[in-house]
Amino acid sequence: MAHDDAGRPAGTRARPMTLPVTIDPMPPVDLAHDDAGDGPAVVLIHGHPFNRSMWAPQLAALRDRFRVIAPDLRGYGDSPVTPGTVPMAQLAADISHLLDGKGIATAAVVGLSMGGLVAMELAAAQPDRWRACAFVATTAARITEAERAARLASARTLDEQGMRPVAEEMAARLFGPETAPELKASIMAMMLATNPAGAAAAVRGRAERPDYQPTLATLGAPALVLTGDHDSYSTAEITRELAGCLPAPEVVLLKGIGHLPNLERPDEFNQHLLSFLTRSLP
Question: CA-CA distance, 8 to 15, in Å (whole number)?
Answer without folding.
Answer: 10
